[in-house]
Write a structure and sequence with these properties.
The protein has 347 residues and is α/β, with parallel strands linked by helices. The protein has helices spanning 19-29, 51-61, 79-82, 88-97, 132-141, 161-168, 207-214, 253-265, 296-311, 329-339, and strands spanning 4-7, 34-36, 43-47, 71-72, 83-85, 102-108, 123-127, 145-146, 174-177, 188-191, 198-201, 218-219, 246-250, 270-274, 286-289, 317-320, 344-346. The strands form 2 sheets. Strands 1, 2, 3, 4, 5, 6, 7, 8, 9, 10, 11 and 12 form a 12-stranded mixed β-sheet that branches. A 5-stranded parallel β-sheet has the order 15-14-16-13-17, with helices on both faces. The radius of gyration is 20 Å and the shape is globular. The model has no long low-confidence stretch (mean pLDDT 97). Bound molecules: threonylcarbamoyladenylate and magnesium ion (MG).
Length: 347
Protein backbone atom coordinates (compact mmCIF):
# COMPACT_ATOMS: atom_id res chain seq x y z
CA UNK A 1 0.00 0.00 0.00
CA UNK A 2 1.24 3.48 -0.84
CA UNK A 3 1.15 5.63 2.29
CA UNK A 4 0.23 9.23 1.43
CA UNK A 5 1.79 12.11 3.37
CA UNK A 6 -0.39 15.21 3.75
CA UNK A 7 1.63 18.14 5.11
CA UNK A 8 -0.61 20.58 6.96
CA UNK A 9 0.37 23.81 8.72
CA UNK A 10 -1.49 23.69 12.03
CA UNK A 11 -1.49 27.48 12.34
CA UNK A 12 -3.45 28.31 9.15
CA UNK A 13 -7.13 29.32 9.30
CA UNK A 14 -10.03 27.26 7.93
CA UNK A 15 -8.31 23.89 8.33
CA UNK A 16 -11.65 22.19 7.77
CA UNK A 17 -11.62 23.20 4.11
CA UNK A 18 -7.91 22.45 3.65
CA UNK A 19 -7.72 20.01 0.68
CA UNK A 20 -5.34 17.71 2.56
CA UNK A 21 -7.69 17.46 5.54
CA UNK A 22 -10.64 16.88 3.19
CA UNK A 23 -8.69 14.11 1.43
CA UNK A 24 -7.67 12.44 4.71
CA UNK A 25 -11.28 12.69 5.99
CA UNK A 26 -12.46 11.04 2.78
CA UNK A 27 -10.22 8.04 3.52
CA UNK A 28 -11.66 7.82 7.05
CA UNK A 29 -15.22 7.85 5.66
CA UNK A 30 -14.17 5.02 3.33
CA UNK A 31 -13.06 3.06 6.42
CA UNK A 32 -9.35 3.36 5.66
CA UNK A 33 -6.93 4.28 8.46
CA UNK A 34 -4.73 7.39 8.58
CA UNK A 35 -2.34 8.75 11.20
CA UNK A 36 -3.03 12.21 12.63
CA UNK A 37 -1.20 14.53 15.01
CA UNK A 38 -2.67 15.23 18.44
CA UNK A 39 -1.26 17.37 21.25
CA UNK A 40 0.16 14.24 22.94
CA UNK A 41 1.41 11.78 20.27
CA UNK A 42 0.36 10.81 16.73
CA UNK A 43 -2.75 8.61 16.63
CA UNK A 44 -3.76 5.98 14.07
CA UNK A 45 -7.31 7.05 13.22
CA UNK A 46 -10.19 4.93 11.96
CA UNK A 47 -14.01 4.96 12.00
CA UNK A 48 -14.91 3.69 15.49
CA UNK A 49 -18.32 2.46 14.31
CA UNK A 50 -16.92 0.18 11.62
CA UNK A 51 -15.42 -3.25 12.35
CA UNK A 52 -13.39 -3.27 9.15
CA UNK A 53 -11.72 0.07 9.86
CA UNK A 54 -10.97 -0.96 13.44
CA UNK A 55 -9.54 -4.30 12.28
CA UNK A 56 -7.15 -2.34 10.03
CA UNK A 57 -5.89 -0.35 13.03
CA UNK A 58 -5.14 -3.52 15.02
CA UNK A 59 -3.51 -5.18 12.01
CA UNK A 60 -1.25 -2.23 11.13
CA UNK A 61 0.03 -1.93 14.71
CA UNK A 62 0.15 -5.65 15.49
CA UNK A 63 -1.91 -4.77 18.56
CA UNK A 64 -3.34 -7.47 20.88
CA UNK A 65 -7.13 -7.70 20.40
CA UNK A 66 -7.85 -7.37 24.15
CA UNK A 67 -6.52 -3.78 24.29
CA UNK A 68 -9.37 -1.25 23.75
CA UNK A 69 -8.95 1.95 21.72
CA UNK A 70 -9.62 5.52 22.82
CA UNK A 71 -12.48 7.23 20.94
CA UNK A 72 -11.75 10.79 19.78
CA UNK A 73 -14.46 13.42 19.36
CA UNK A 74 -14.57 17.11 18.43
CA UNK A 75 -17.81 18.10 20.24
CA UNK A 76 -19.18 17.02 23.63
CA UNK A 77 -22.61 16.33 22.02
CA UNK A 78 -21.07 13.38 20.17
CA UNK A 79 -20.98 11.53 23.51
CA UNK A 80 -24.77 11.09 23.51
CA UNK A 81 -24.50 8.63 20.68
CA UNK A 82 -22.43 6.02 22.50
CA UNK A 83 -22.02 6.98 26.18
CA UNK A 84 -24.72 5.70 28.59
CA UNK A 85 -24.15 8.07 31.46
CA UNK A 86 -22.03 11.14 32.27
CA UNK A 87 -21.32 11.29 36.03
CA UNK A 88 -21.07 14.75 37.61
CA UNK A 89 -17.31 14.58 38.18
CA UNK A 90 -16.76 13.52 34.57
CA UNK A 91 -18.79 16.54 33.40
CA UNK A 92 -16.58 18.84 35.49
CA UNK A 93 -13.42 17.24 34.06
CA UNK A 94 -14.69 17.58 30.49
CA UNK A 95 -15.44 21.27 30.96
CA UNK A 96 -12.07 21.93 32.56
CA UNK A 97 -9.70 19.72 30.52
CA UNK A 98 -11.29 19.19 27.07
CA UNK A 99 -9.92 19.68 24.56
CA UNK A 100 -6.78 18.30 26.21
CA UNK A 101 -4.74 15.26 27.22
CA UNK A 102 -7.40 13.56 29.38
CA UNK A 103 -9.21 10.33 28.46
CA UNK A 104 -12.34 9.63 30.50
CA UNK A 105 -13.77 6.11 30.89
CA UNK A 106 -17.60 6.03 30.77
CA UNK A 107 -20.26 3.33 30.83
CA UNK A 108 -21.14 2.66 27.20
CA UNK A 109 -24.37 2.43 25.20
CA UNK A 110 -24.28 -0.96 23.55
CA UNK A 111 -24.46 -1.51 19.83
CA UNK A 112 -23.09 1.75 18.42
CA UNK A 113 -19.31 1.40 18.38
CA UNK A 114 -17.45 -1.52 16.87
CA UNK A 115 -17.01 -4.16 19.59
CA UNK A 116 -13.47 -4.63 18.34
CA UNK A 117 -12.70 -1.00 19.23
CA UNK A 118 -13.79 -1.45 22.83
CA UNK A 119 -12.36 -4.99 23.07
CA UNK A 120 -15.74 -6.29 24.17
CA UNK A 121 -15.82 -4.16 27.36
CA UNK A 122 -18.97 -2.41 28.64
CA UNK A 123 -17.03 0.83 29.12
CA UNK A 124 -15.45 3.23 26.65
CA UNK A 125 -12.54 5.71 26.91
CA UNK A 126 -13.14 9.06 25.19
CA UNK A 127 -11.10 12.19 24.66
CA UNK A 128 -11.17 15.48 22.74
CA UNK A 129 -7.65 16.20 21.47
CA UNK A 130 -6.30 19.74 21.76
CA UNK A 131 -4.78 19.97 18.30
CA UNK A 132 -6.20 22.09 15.47
CA UNK A 133 -5.38 19.45 12.83
CA UNK A 134 -6.98 16.59 14.77
CA UNK A 135 -10.07 18.68 15.54
CA UNK A 136 -10.42 19.75 11.90
CA UNK A 137 -10.12 16.15 10.73
CA UNK A 138 -12.68 14.95 13.31
CA UNK A 139 -15.13 17.70 12.31
CA UNK A 140 -14.67 17.14 8.60
CA UNK A 141 -15.32 13.39 8.74
CA UNK A 142 -18.03 13.78 11.40
CA UNK A 143 -17.30 10.33 12.86
CA UNK A 144 -16.24 9.16 16.31
CA UNK A 145 -12.62 8.18 15.64
CA UNK A 146 -10.81 5.30 17.32
CA UNK A 147 -7.11 6.16 17.59
CA UNK A 148 -4.36 4.37 19.48
CA UNK A 149 -0.85 5.78 19.32
CA UNK A 150 0.41 5.33 15.74
CA UNK A 151 3.42 3.10 16.52
CA UNK A 152 4.01 -0.61 16.02
CA UNK A 153 2.86 -2.33 19.20
CA UNK A 154 5.64 -2.27 21.82
CA UNK A 155 7.61 0.62 20.28
CA UNK A 156 7.77 4.17 21.70
CA UNK A 157 4.78 6.28 20.68
CA UNK A 158 5.39 8.58 17.67
CA UNK A 159 5.83 12.29 18.24
CA UNK A 160 6.58 13.12 14.57
CA UNK A 161 5.18 11.98 11.22
CA UNK A 162 8.64 10.52 10.54
CA UNK A 163 8.29 8.19 13.54
CA UNK A 164 4.91 7.05 12.18
CA UNK A 165 6.41 6.29 8.76
CA UNK A 166 9.35 4.41 10.36
CA UNK A 167 6.83 1.98 11.88
CA UNK A 168 3.81 1.97 9.56
CA UNK A 169 4.83 3.04 6.05
CA UNK A 170 3.13 0.78 3.52
CA UNK A 171 0.66 -0.45 6.14
CA UNK A 172 -1.70 2.57 6.35
CA UNK A 173 -3.43 4.82 3.82
CA UNK A 174 -1.68 7.99 4.93
CA UNK A 175 -0.34 10.31 7.59
CA UNK A 176 -1.34 13.91 8.17
CA UNK A 177 1.96 15.62 9.04
CA UNK A 178 1.20 18.53 11.35
CA UNK A 179 4.75 18.78 12.76
CA UNK A 180 6.02 17.48 16.10
CA UNK A 181 3.46 16.98 18.88
CA UNK A 182 3.64 19.14 22.00
CA UNK A 183 3.03 17.21 25.22
CA UNK A 184 4.99 14.15 24.15
CA UNK A 185 3.47 11.59 26.53
CA UNK A 186 -0.04 10.18 26.05
CA UNK A 187 -3.24 11.36 27.70
CA UNK A 188 -4.02 10.60 31.31
CA UNK A 189 -6.68 7.85 31.47
CA UNK A 190 -9.18 8.30 34.32
CA UNK A 191 -12.00 5.89 35.15
CA UNK A 192 -15.09 7.84 36.21
CA UNK A 193 -17.43 4.84 36.49
CA UNK A 194 -16.73 4.33 40.23
CA UNK A 195 -17.40 6.54 43.28
CA UNK A 196 -13.81 7.72 43.38
CA UNK A 197 -12.25 8.47 40.01
CA UNK A 198 -9.19 6.28 39.40
CA UNK A 199 -6.16 7.13 37.25
CA UNK A 200 -5.44 4.07 35.09
CA UNK A 201 -2.57 5.67 33.17
CA UNK A 202 -0.64 8.80 34.23
CA UNK A 203 -0.24 11.29 31.38
CA UNK A 204 -0.43 14.87 30.22
CA UNK A 205 -2.92 16.02 32.89
CA UNK A 206 -1.43 15.54 36.37
CA UNK A 207 -3.07 14.06 39.48
CA UNK A 208 -2.55 17.43 41.16
CA UNK A 209 -4.48 19.22 38.40
CA UNK A 210 -7.32 16.67 38.58
CA UNK A 211 -7.61 16.85 42.37
CA UNK A 212 -7.74 20.65 42.24
CA UNK A 213 -11.11 20.41 40.45
CA UNK A 214 -12.79 17.17 41.66
CA UNK A 215 -11.12 16.37 44.98
CA UNK A 216 -9.71 12.97 45.86
CA UNK A 217 -8.50 10.87 42.94
CA UNK A 218 -7.10 7.35 43.35
CA UNK A 219 -4.35 5.71 41.34
CA UNK A 220 -4.74 2.15 40.04
CA UNK A 221 -2.58 0.17 42.53
CA UNK A 222 -1.34 -1.98 39.64
CA UNK A 223 0.78 0.98 38.45
CA UNK A 224 3.09 0.42 41.43
CA UNK A 225 2.65 -3.30 41.99
CA UNK A 226 3.83 -5.49 39.15
CA UNK A 227 1.86 -8.50 40.39
CA UNK A 228 -1.55 -6.75 40.22
CA UNK A 229 -3.69 -6.72 37.07
CA UNK A 230 -4.02 -3.19 35.66
CA UNK A 231 -7.52 -1.89 34.91
CA UNK A 232 -6.38 -0.43 31.60
CA UNK A 233 -5.63 -3.56 29.57
CA UNK A 234 -2.85 -1.78 27.67
CA UNK A 235 -0.86 -1.11 30.84
CA UNK A 236 0.11 -4.76 31.25
CA UNK A 237 2.20 -4.82 28.08
CA UNK A 238 5.91 -4.09 27.79
CA UNK A 239 6.09 -0.87 25.84
CA UNK A 240 8.40 1.87 24.62
CA UNK A 241 11.44 -0.40 24.77
CA UNK A 242 14.60 0.57 22.87
CA UNK A 243 16.58 -2.29 21.27
CA UNK A 244 19.38 -2.23 23.85
CA UNK A 245 18.62 -3.06 27.50
CA UNK A 246 17.76 0.10 29.44
CA UNK A 247 18.50 0.53 33.15
CA UNK A 248 17.11 3.32 35.33
CA UNK A 249 19.76 4.52 37.76
CA UNK A 250 18.66 5.58 41.22
CA UNK A 251 21.47 7.48 42.91
CA UNK A 252 23.99 10.22 42.29
CA UNK A 253 25.41 11.15 38.91
CA UNK A 254 28.82 9.98 40.18
CA UNK A 255 27.29 6.52 40.65
CA UNK A 256 25.92 6.60 37.09
CA UNK A 257 29.35 7.69 35.81
CA UNK A 258 30.95 4.70 37.56
CA UNK A 259 28.44 2.29 35.96
CA UNK A 260 29.24 3.75 32.56
CA UNK A 261 32.99 3.39 33.14
CA UNK A 262 32.61 -0.25 34.24
CA UNK A 263 30.65 -1.23 31.14
CA UNK A 264 33.04 0.62 28.82
CA UNK A 265 35.94 -1.22 30.46
CA UNK A 266 34.16 -4.43 29.43
CA UNK A 267 34.24 -3.19 25.83
CA UNK A 268 30.55 -2.33 25.55
CA UNK A 269 29.13 0.68 23.69
CA UNK A 270 27.27 2.60 26.37
CA UNK A 271 24.38 5.06 26.00
CA UNK A 272 23.32 7.61 28.62
CA UNK A 273 19.94 9.33 28.82
CA UNK A 274 20.33 12.62 30.64
CA UNK A 275 19.14 16.23 30.37
CA UNK A 276 20.73 19.42 29.09
CA UNK A 277 21.88 20.41 32.56
CA UNK A 278 24.19 17.40 32.95
CA UNK A 279 25.09 16.32 29.41
CA UNK A 280 28.75 17.33 29.84
CA UNK A 281 29.25 15.12 32.88
CA UNK A 282 29.20 11.77 31.10
CA UNK A 283 31.86 10.07 29.05
CA UNK A 284 30.05 7.47 27.00
CA UNK A 285 29.75 6.46 23.34
CA UNK A 286 26.31 8.07 23.06
CA UNK A 287 24.95 10.74 25.41
CA UNK A 288 21.43 11.89 24.50
CA UNK A 289 19.73 14.77 26.25
CA UNK A 290 16.02 14.72 26.92
CA UNK A 291 14.92 18.30 27.58
CA UNK A 292 15.72 20.21 30.76
CA UNK A 293 15.31 18.62 34.18
CA UNK A 294 14.22 21.99 35.59
CA UNK A 295 11.20 21.90 33.25
CA UNK A 296 9.77 18.38 33.20
CA UNK A 297 7.39 19.31 30.34
CA UNK A 298 10.44 19.53 28.06
CA UNK A 299 11.54 16.05 29.17
CA UNK A 300 8.09 14.63 28.35
CA UNK A 301 8.13 16.32 24.94
CA UNK A 302 11.51 14.80 23.99
CA UNK A 303 11.29 11.38 25.64
CA UNK A 304 10.00 9.11 22.85
CA UNK A 305 12.23 10.69 20.21
CA UNK A 306 15.27 10.07 22.42
CA UNK A 307 14.26 6.44 23.04
CA UNK A 308 13.94 5.94 19.27
CA UNK A 309 17.28 7.66 18.59
CA UNK A 310 19.19 5.19 20.75
CA UNK A 311 18.21 2.53 18.20
CA UNK A 312 20.10 4.37 15.45
CA UNK A 313 23.28 4.41 17.55
CA UNK A 314 24.04 0.70 18.00
CA UNK A 315 24.59 0.88 21.75
CA UNK A 316 24.86 -2.30 23.85
CA UNK A 317 23.39 -0.90 27.05
CA UNK A 318 21.65 2.34 28.10
CA UNK A 319 21.65 3.98 31.54
CA UNK A 320 19.05 6.63 32.32
CA UNK A 321 18.79 9.24 35.01
CA UNK A 322 15.50 9.18 36.94
CA UNK A 323 12.96 11.98 37.47
CA UNK A 324 10.77 13.03 40.40
CA UNK A 325 7.38 11.31 40.65
CA UNK A 326 5.45 14.57 40.64
CA UNK A 327 3.50 16.53 38.06
CA UNK A 328 4.19 15.20 34.57
CA UNK A 329 7.24 13.43 36.09
CA UNK A 330 4.81 10.70 37.14
CA UNK A 331 4.00 9.94 33.49
CA UNK A 332 7.66 10.23 32.46
CA UNK A 333 8.71 7.69 35.11
CA UNK A 334 5.83 5.35 34.22
CA UNK A 335 6.99 5.30 30.57
CA UNK A 336 10.67 4.92 31.53
CA UNK A 337 9.85 2.03 33.88
CA UNK A 338 8.02 0.29 31.05
CA UNK A 339 10.82 1.00 28.58
CA UNK A 340 13.28 -0.48 31.09
CA UNK A 341 11.07 -3.46 31.91
CA UNK A 342 11.32 -2.12 35.50
CA UNK A 343 15.09 -2.65 35.70
CA UNK A 344 16.39 -0.18 38.31
CA UNK A 345 19.97 -0.09 39.63
CA UNK A 346 20.12 1.40 43.12
CA UNK A 347 23.24 2.99 44.57
O1 LIG B 1 -2.76 10.54 24.09
C1 LIG B 1 -3.35 9.51 23.81
O2 LIG B 1 -4.19 8.99 24.57
C2 LIG B 1 -3.05 8.85 22.45
C3 LIG B 1 -3.54 9.79 21.35
C4 LIG B 1 -3.36 9.20 19.98
O3 LIG B 1 -4.87 10.14 21.58
N1 LIG B 1 -3.69 7.56 22.36
C5 LIG B 1 -3.25 6.48 23.05
O4 LIG B 1 -3.94 5.32 22.78
O5 LIG B 1 -2.33 6.52 23.83
P1 LIG B 1 -3.38 3.87 23.14
O6 LIG B 1 -4.31 2.94 22.46
O7 LIG B 1 -1.97 3.79 22.80
O8 LIG B 1 -3.61 3.73 24.68
C6 LIG B 1 -4.93 3.63 25.20
C7 LIG B 1 -4.89 3.14 26.63
C8 LIG B 1 -4.56 1.67 26.71
O9 LIG B 1 -3.73 1.44 27.87
C9 LIG B 1 -5.94 1.04 26.89
O10 LIG B 1 -5.89 -0.22 27.51
C10 LIG B 1 -6.66 2.08 27.73
O11 LIG B 1 -6.20 3.32 27.20
N2 LIG B 1 -8.13 2.01 27.58
C11 LIG B 1 -8.87 2.32 26.48
N3 LIG B 1 -10.18 2.08 26.72
C12 LIG B 1 -10.29 1.61 27.99
C13 LIG B 1 -11.37 1.17 28.82
N4 LIG B 1 -12.62 1.16 28.41
N5 LIG B 1 -11.08 0.76 30.08
C14 LIG B 1 -9.78 0.79 30.54
N6 LIG B 1 -8.72 1.19 29.80
C15 LIG B 1 -8.97 1.58 28.55
MG1 LIG C 1 0.02 3.28 22.76
Amino acid sequence: MNTKVWKVDKYVDNLESNPHIVDAAHFLKENEVVAMPTETVYGLAGNAENDEAVAKIFAAKGRPADNPLIIHIAEQEQLNRFVAEVPEKAAILMDKFWPGPLTIIFKMKEGVLSEKATAGLTTVGVRMPDHPVALALLRTCGLPIAAPSANSSGKPSPTTAGHVLDDLEGKIAGVVDGGPTGVGVESTVIDCTETFPVILRPGGVTKEQLEAVIGEVHIDPALKNEAAKPKAPGMKYRHYAPNAPLYLVSGTREFLQRLVAEKRAEGLRVGVLTTEEHADEYEAEVVLTCGRRAELETVAAALYDVLRRFNEQQVDVIFSEMFPYEGVGYAIMNRLEKAAGNKVIKE
